[in-house]
Amino acid sequence: MPRFLALLPLLFAAFVAAKEAPPAAADPVLEKRVMALAEELRCLVCQNQTLADSNAPLAEDLRNQLREKIREGKSDAEVVDFLVERYGDFVLYRPPLKATTILLWFGPLLLLAAGFAVLLRRLLRRRSVEVAEMTAADRKRVAELLAGTQGERR
To answer: Which of 56, 61, 89, 97 is the 20 to 30 A CA-CA neighbour of 118?
Structure first.
């Protein structure tokens, strides 16, 4: 009996965490189109997930808007255009290459190139550090020191 009581909190946690399964779609073809479109659109809350992957309430609302537009007979392109018009290119999971998104596409490459240039410059600078030219007096002093240390060793 004590073992059962120890498992009771786990059973309660599983019951609380369980979600009700979404109802099966009345039209599987429509649902397939909705999920295909949702894979191409970004969740505006999660930002790093597609609408299909996100569990955010806004993502569910956007999926419902997709269903509604498809039921109205809109094509996939018209539905995407509607969302882009409403939310901007940010809603697209793969934004188009335009003047406003050029930094988004090539920014990481530019940062990598800049980092490589800084690294290369530092390495070349480190390699090009030369020993300062010695004057005649410095050479004489070095020779005396070396002669003195060699005489002490013998």
So the answer is: 97
